[in-house]
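Duplicate of #3305? Posting structure anyway:
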């Protein structure tokens, strides 16, 4: 048994540890050393240069201040030194499709989303739909150092038709309303305008014009009324989830779109509607045209239409099968009861009433999607990593590593997949001078890995440390973040 004195000492010690951890993780500048040096590490800088073994990287404040051979880089006196021998240093990762505020505000983004992102090495996100005031508050808390979180770029609410697919949305029924909608979002400081599936052609082209006039870029879904080729030609900067892409590679594109938009026959039963949809998908797959695919990819390349596939969403929700359902995944311990319910509802809607033929069709569509992405990559179409977290079955942070694995399965080299989450997003965001690669003067967003991701892309999950805007987070700190997220989930 411990005596009272030991107990008091233990209390003081644990209080001090807790205090130190909280203070260190939550407030920004107090305890940062004079510099950090990672020595004898293999640097995979994501510029496309070959790996550089036995390198030293020095971090001063929030920046990388030196990168070079360990034999020649000067380590500042009083710098904290980490031995990186046998380890690999890569740039921090970007998830280019998330919905930070979709996990229950105000606590969901802060207590659930951010810890999972940071523990998984995601240091930049593009939020693809949420309320501006929430997102601005989150960004401010991170920038002021009050909270640990990724660098955030965001679109704010969706521009959509009536009824909107998701909330928050601004309804844009026709071209008349586009000026007001785009001006309003621009004045609120959004980084991009997000277009959604139910926009009319007139509204969509109005938005495209307005964005051109106001110097904004627009991103999102290809609306149901349009071809992906038309969206590309209209200047859409990124297409998400392959919306409209498979259809645009079909030799029967127009006919299939007309059928998709037409209302079903009156009094159609659910089973009949399912059968109709199955036939439609079958014809979509059977009418794939090599020539149309090539033309479309040329168009994407010429217009620099970036692609964010969000494979975790496609696999675990869009084309969900009982095999890809994550209900029993041990990581569901990070879900609050509220979120569990939302996810369960999403899975039910996707699985219920479907049977083996539906699921095998879904598997075929996924296979075809992977093939198209392989061709896109071979054609030089720019690709970025993204997940759509926290949509049902898409867990923040963890899912980004899965997306990278799917990109490799589609045909990207591990280096290209790594760049799709580092150098490429920086290029897309116009921030190449700031982030995305390991080079002098760039923001110190880094991941120290225990194994080489160029040998197996899954090694991006073997995270030893994360450097977030100059702050060094040890494995124990990352585990502490995960434990906190788990604790939050259990109590909400
Ligand atoms: Zn989304």
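Output from current build:
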């Amino acid at each position: 048994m411990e005596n009272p004195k030991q107990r008091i000492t233990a209390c003081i010690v644990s209080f001090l540890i807790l205090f130190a951890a909280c203070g260190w993780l939550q407030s920004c500048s107090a305890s940062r050393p004079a510099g950090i040096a990672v020595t004898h590490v293999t640097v995979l800088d994501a510029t496309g240069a070959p790996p550089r073994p036995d390198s030293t990287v020095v971090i001063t404040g929030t920046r990388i201040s030196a990168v070079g051979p360990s034999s020649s880089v000067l380590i500042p006196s009083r710098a904290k030194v980490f031995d990186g021998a046998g380890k690999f240093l890569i740039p921090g990762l970007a998830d280019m499709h998330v919905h930070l505020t979709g996990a229950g505000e105000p606590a969901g983004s802060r207590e659930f989303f951010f810890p999972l992102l940071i523990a998984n090495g995601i240091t930049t996100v593009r939020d693809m739909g949420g309320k501006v005031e929430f997102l601005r508050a989150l960004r401010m808390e991170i920038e002021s150092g009050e909270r640990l979180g990724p660098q955030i770029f965001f679109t704010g609410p969706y521009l959509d038709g009536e009824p909107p697919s998701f909330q928050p949305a601004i309804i844009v029924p026709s071209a008349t309303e586009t000026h007001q909608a785009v001006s309003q979002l621009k004045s609120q400081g959004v980084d991009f305008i997000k277009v959604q599936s139910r926009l009319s052609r007139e509204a969509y082209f109005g938005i495209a014009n307005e964005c051109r006039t106001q110097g904004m870029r627009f991103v999102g879904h290809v609306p149901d009324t349009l071809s992906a080729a038309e969206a590309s030609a209209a200047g859409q900067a990124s297409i998400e989830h392959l919306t409209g892409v498979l259809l645009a590679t079909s030799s029967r594109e127009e006919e299939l779109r007309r059928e998709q938009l037409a209302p079903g026959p009156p009094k159609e039963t659910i089973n009949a509607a399912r059968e109709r949809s199955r036939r439609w998908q079958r014809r979509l797959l059977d009418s794939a045209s090599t020539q149309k695919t090539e033309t479309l990819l040329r168009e994407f390349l010429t217009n620099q239409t970036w692609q964010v596939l969000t494979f975790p969403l496609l696999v675990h929700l869009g084309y969900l099968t009982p095999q890809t359902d994550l209900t029993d995944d041990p990581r569901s311990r990070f879900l609050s009861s509220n979120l569990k319910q939302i996810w369960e509802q999403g899975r039910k809607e996707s699985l219920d009433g479907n049977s083996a033929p539906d699921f095998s069709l879904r598997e075929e569509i996924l296979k075809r999607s992977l093939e198209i992405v392989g061709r896109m990559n071979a054609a030089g179409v720019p690709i970025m990593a993204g997940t759509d977290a926290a949509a049902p079955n898409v867990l923040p942070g963890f899912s980004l590593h899965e997306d990278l694995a799917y990109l490799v399965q589609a045909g990207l080299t591990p280096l290209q997949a790594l760049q799709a989450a580092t150098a490429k997003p920086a290029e897309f965001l116009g921030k190449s001078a700031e982030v995305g690669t390991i080079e002098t003067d760039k923001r110190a967003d880094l991941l120290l890995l225990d194994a080489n991701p160029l040998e197996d892309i899954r090694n991006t999950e073997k995270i030893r440390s994360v450097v977030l805007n100059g702050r060094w987070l040890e494995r124990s700190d990352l585990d502490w973040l995960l434990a906190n997220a788990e604790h939050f989930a259990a109590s909400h």
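Confirmed duplicate; merging threads. The first strand starts at residue 36 and ends at 43. The chain has a mean pLDDT of 93.
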